[in-house]
Amino acid sequence: MAFHAEKKEFTEITKCPDCGGTEFIMDWKKKEKICSKCGLVVGRIFKPH
Length: 49
Ligand SMILES: [Zn+2]
What we know:
It is built from one helix and three strands, in the order αβββ. By secondary structure, it is α+β, with helices and mostly antiparallel strands. It has a three-stranded antiparallel beta sheet, with no helix packed on it.
């Protein structure tokens, strides 16, 4: 239950809360989703495997 909620929260982030940017960079090494405009870490990446 908790895991599902966390995953949903991440996938729902489509707009940067800071600058409003809609393009993101996936940093697979740090497992972070980063705004391409301002560099804000908006969420964490969940690998399917
Ligand atoms: Zn941003």
